[in-house]
Each structure stands twice: as C-alpha cells, then as structure tokens.
Amino acid sequence: MPATTAHNLLTDNPELYEARFPDPDRLAGRWTEDRLRRHGAGPRVLDMGCGTGRDAAHLHRAGRTVTGADLSEAMLAHARTHHPGPRYVRADLHRFDLGPERFDAVVCLDSALLYCHTNDQLDGFLASCRRALAPGGLLVAEMRNGAYFLGRTDLLDTPAVHAFTWQGTAYRSTTTLTVDRTAQLLRRTRVWTSDDEAEPVVQRSAWRLLFPQELRHLLTAHGFDVLELHDGPGPRTEPPWQEGLSPGTAADADRLHVVARLAAPR
Fold first, then answer.
1. How far is CA 238 from CA 156, 233, 235, 242, 255, in A?
2. Are residues 116 and 45 in the same domain?
3. Are residues 184 and 201 in the same domain?
4. 12 belongs to a structural domain
5. Is the model's pTM score more than 0.90?
6. d(CA 241, CA 232)
7. Are residues 45 and 116 in the same domain?
8. For residue 128, what pLDDT band results from cuts at 50, 70 and 90?
C-alpha cells in the first residue's frame, strides 16, 4: 500500500525538482524579463514563490536587484548555493511583509499564486503586493487557466505519466487531476515510484481555479490596472514564447498570463 505523506518530494529535494522540470534555456526568466522591459519596470524585483531560484537568478543577471521569497527552507538553501546573486528570504505568499523596502515589480510564476486557495488568501496576497510595490509597480504572474476546464476534460480523463533519471535512480510519477467545483480547486494526486526499491509515495496538493474575468475583478478591486491578461504565448505554452512575440488576445488555453500595474492613488 503506497504511503501518503504531507511532504512534497520535489520541494523537499530541489535538485530533483530541477531534474523533473528542467529549464536550461531559462525560458520563464526570459519571458518575465521581457514583460518587465515591455512595461518599463524599474530594477527592484520581488520573486514570490521563487522555488529553486532559477528565475530570480536570471533576472539578477539581467541587471535587476532581486529578492526571492519562498516558504520552503530546502528551496531557499538550494537557491542560495546554486543560484546566487539575489537575496533570498522566507515568506508566505498568503500574506507577507518584507519591511519598508518597496519593489518595482512582484513576480509570481508557475501557478504559485494558485496556492492561495481561499478568497481570504487571495486578498491577503494582493494586499501584500500592494504594500510591497512602489507607485506604478507591476505584478507579473503566470498560472493555470481555470477557464480551460469549462467543458474540457482532456487533462482529467487520463493520468499523466512522467519518467526521468536523477543521480542514477529512475523515477516515475503518475499524476491524476480532479476538479473540486465547490471549493473551485484543481486537486492533484501524484504517485511516485522509483527503481531503488523504495515504497511508492502518494502526495496530494491543489491549485485554485481562477477565471480570467474573476482575476481581472480581483486585481481591479485591489487597485491594479490590468495591462495584459491572455493565454499566451508564455513559458509553458505550446508552442512556447519566443523573443519578439506579442501577447495574445484570447484567454482560452490552459495557461493564463497577467501583467497589472498598481494604479496611482485617487
């Protein structure tokens, strides 16, 4: 019988995370830098949910002053060692306060924002961003698109299986997604097996399903002007974003990209 754990095999093992989700071309970081430049963001950037620090380090190398924040001590330790340059701090995206420093942009990639499961948590995140940003600062986020699951079941019908090798051990993950309509959550059950005779491990997590107009309303209610809200191209779309591509106009595919500017006080 597989063992169920509250721990996350990937976030507890950052090198394994990078092996499972490689980004050798730093596509996410390059897309983010392109958004920041396109909308004239200043140099001070906060990367909320920075994970292993790959994107934060890319923005640092692009000449920005970057703070990476995450809740996982293992991820932060990995980031400090393997992706130096930014300042790394522990913070909870549900509600954070990094002191008097103000940022020109807050970045939140790879569906990190969707770990705000409740309306209170979403309000806490956006209120924290509002406090952290300098006047005219940007919020740049990339995530799953809740609207994709309206009438579509292709991501729900069949478990997704991925296999890869890390440090000589072959790993296999089988991921099943289900929609909890009442909670408006996309629930994920992932079963890990490996060829080192370890017992299978079951992990459970969830993302909030946000819809484009719902997200636009939340941002506006917190004092942001929405500059971009579309399904791509982006770092995790097919085909992926490339330099020079303009933002799309639809919000129908499985990823959602948003750029919003903190409005001047009225």
1. 19, 8, 9, 11, 10
2. yes
3. yes
4. no
5. yes
6. 7
7. yes
8. very high
Q: Which domain holds residue 239?
A: 17-146+210-262
Q: Are 225 and 94 within one domain?
A: yes
* Separation between Cα atoms, residue 194 and residue 77, nearest integer Å: 25
pLDDT at residue 196 in the model: 86
- Asked if 44 and 167 sit in the same domain, the reply is no
Q: Are residues 221 and 203 in the same domain?
A: no
Q: Which CATH number do you get for residue 178?
A: 3.30.1300.30
Question: How confident is the prediction for the chain on average, in pLDDT?
Answer: 94
248 domain residue, yes or no: yes
Give whole-number Cα distances, 8 to 4, 201, 219, in Å.
10, 10, 30
In a domain, 252, yes or no: yes
Q: How many domains does the chain have?
A: 2
Distance CA 66, CA 104 (A): 10
Say yes or no: 168 and 136 in one domain: no
Q: What is the DSSP string of the chain?
A: -PEE-SS-TTTTSHHHHHHHS--TT-HHHHHHHHHHHHTT--SEEEEET-TTSHHHHHHHHTT-EEEEEES-HHHHHHHHHHS-SSEEEE--TTS----S--EEEEEE-TTGGGG--SHHHHHHHHHHHHHHEEEEEEEEEEEE-GGGGSS--HHHHS-EEEEEEETTEEEEEEEEEEEETTTTEEEEEEEEEETT-PPPEEEEEEEE---HHHHHHHHHHTTEEEEEEES-S-TTSSSPP-TTPPP-S---SSEEEEEEEEPPP-
Q: Which of 96-100, 179-183, 191-195, 220-224 has the lowest mean pLDDT?
A: 191-195
Residue range 52-87, pLDDT digits in tens: 999 999 999 999 999 999 999 999 999 999 999 999
